[in-house]
Amino acid sequence: xxxxxxxxxxxxxxxxxxxxxxxxxxxxxxxxxxxxxxxxxxxxxxxxxxxxxxxxxxxxxxxxxxxxxxxxxxxxxxxxxx
Length: 82
What we know:
3-stranded antiparallel β-sheet; 40% strand
């Protein structure tokens, strides 16, 4: 898989720390790579060429708030009343 830009409603979560990553430009969840803007004191950090983009190796997960987790209740289990 290659890098892609996450949709605005997706959350990018660091699996190890549980931190929700902000200011994400693009992700590659298979390779465990995140590119995001560097922000300090709520201000985007600039260099001579523009904004600083961090390229990080992290174990990440993509979450969609309100989406099903894929867990389905076991409704086939019945107690015999006999």
